[in-house]
Every structure is written in C-alpha cells, then in structure tokens.
Amino acid sequence: MHKVIYDTDPGVDDAMALLFLHRHPEIDLVGITTVFGNASVETTTRNALFLKREWNIPAPVSKGASVTIDPSREERPWPAMVHGENGLGDIDVPETIDLPLDPRPAHRFIIDTVRAHPGEVRLVAVGRMTNLALALKEDPEIATLAKDVVIMGGNFYVPGNVSPVAEANIHGDPEAADIVMTAPWKVVVIGLDVTAITTMSRSYLGDMAARGDKAVKQLDELSQFYIDFYKHAVKDGMMVHDSCACVYVVAPELFSSISGAVRVVCGGIADGQTIVKPDGRRFPPGGAWDGLPRQIVCTGIESEKVIGLIRETLLTA
Q1: Mind telling me which residue stretches traverse the membrane in this protein (predicted)?
Q2: What is the pLDDT of residue 284?
Q3: What is the mean pLDDT of the chain?
Q4: 241 part of the active site
Q5: Under a CB-based contact definition with an 8 Å cutoff, are residues 132 and 125 in contact?
Q6: Which of 118, 297, 304, 314 is 20 to 30 A from 76 in CA distance terms?
Q7: Which pLDDT band, with edges at 50, 70 and 90, does 232 fall under?
Q8: Catalytic pick from 24, 107, 171, 241?
Q9: Is pLDDT of 61 > 80?
C-alpha cells in the first residue's frame, strides 16, 4: 500500500484525482491538505470537505496556505473561467460543510504524518507548492523522511499554459516550487509534457457516468464546465492533469523520464519557468546547478493506458 498525502486545490481535475486516490486498492489516502490556487483556500478547503462528505472519504482534511511563500507577490485573479466561480464547475455546493477540519495547518499535518511514518509517505501535490515549502522551512529533515514527492506542475520541452514558458501551478508560487525542487528528497515532476497529451473526451466520461455510481455521475456533472473551457485545445474533452500524477504512484511504468537538477525561474518575463539540467550535461562550475539533487522529469506517457486505468479505478465502487 502507498501511504499518500494529497496536497490539492479542488478544482475539477483535482476532484477526479481525489476519487482515483480514494478508490485505488493500492493507495492508503492518509490525508488531504488544501492550498489556494484554483480558488481561495477557503473555497478549496470547502470543496475538499464537500467531496469528502459526498464520496465518503475517511481521510482528514487540513487547511493550508492562503498566500505565496513570498508574501510580497501580488495575487492574481482566481481562474474562474477554467473551474467555475466555486472551483467545482459551478455545480450546487453548500456554502459551508458540517465536517471538522484537522486542527493543524497543512504544513504541520505534513510534518507530523511524515515523521509518524518515516520512509513511507508519498506526497502527491497537484497545486501550488506552498504547503510543501512551508513544511521544509519549518522542518528540513522531512526531506530525508518522506518516501518521495510526486507533483503535477511545470513544463520542460513544451509551452506553458499561463505564459509561453510557465505552467499554472508553478507560476502561482515559483519561490515555493524552487524550494521543493532543490530539497534533498526525490521529486517526480509530472508536467504539461505528458498531461497536455492525456485527454478524456466528454463521451468517454459520460459512458463512465452511465456505468458508475453516484460519485462518478457527480464527477461527470462537475466536469462539464471544465470541458467547455478546453474547447480551444481539446476536441470535446479535457486534459486530466492531476490524475496523471496519481497514476504515476501506482503505475510508473506507464511513463518515461529523464533525470537531472531542476530549478524554477523566479521573476521577470520567464517567471515560473521550470528548467532541468539533464544528467550528463556539463557546465562550468560555480553555477546555479551545482550540488543539487537529481530529480525525475517525465517526458513521455502511455496516455491510453493511463486513461484506461483511471476509468477502471473510478468504476471500482
């Protein structure tokens, strides 16, 4: 069993990924930590509690960061045109959910859980990396105690989606992402290089909903707004960004990758760009790449098999 903390900002594709983590038989979802991104942290936390209630997920929810790790960064508008005003495709969601939150802030929840299960916890982070960076700042030793970190974010050999060079999760808090990438733990980066070519059509999801239970039907409903947004890039379907990171946890053989040090540009016109120095490439000493850990950057994916595994898992009620 893979012990997973899911760090998320629900978010439509976050919801699909959450249901995957909840239903896969090899995953023990030990916690859900929330962060701002697709909406304010108040909204993403409410959404996490809503999905926990609707889908009967036992994992505790812990509320996380509401601002970037560098508080001087100006917050941009929430991407309501992607996920809807309420973050869940504007389906009917109550203003408040009568479920308790874990009393600890998300970064403390991460620290305590990793320390309670040394070498076992996998952090699956599909939003801004702020909670992980805060955990590292408070307790740097957790980098040696977590099993690994699997993130959805970044882009290396394809364009970005919020600027020509930057992907949204990294662009939302570049300083936090650079802290996470350069810490001495194993990071697997599932970025737009693989997620942008892994799509699920409206009819495919509709067929799943017809075969599935209430949760899958609800997932189909809340995804319609998101699918409509993606019409500029996908023919009547959506990219399943966050679920790709979750699939990696149980089926890494469906991905191909390179390894090397990863840095994030902080500031300027390339703000949020992710850059890998592939292993084997040599540069003059004294640069920004010296002495950094080797991380894994996914560059290829067997998309049809990934979509098939998502379907199989979601239909396992």
Answers
A1: none
A2: 84
A3: 96
A4: yes
A5: yes
A6: 297
A7: confident
A8: 241
A9: yes
Across 12-18, average pLDDT: 97
What six digits make up the tokens of 253?
A: 């053989």
Catalytic residue among 9, 102, 178, 220: 9
pLDDT tens-place string over residues 30-55: 999 999 999 999 999 999 999 999 99
Report the CATH superfamily, name and number, of domain 2-315: Ribonucleoside hydrolase-like (3.90.245.10)
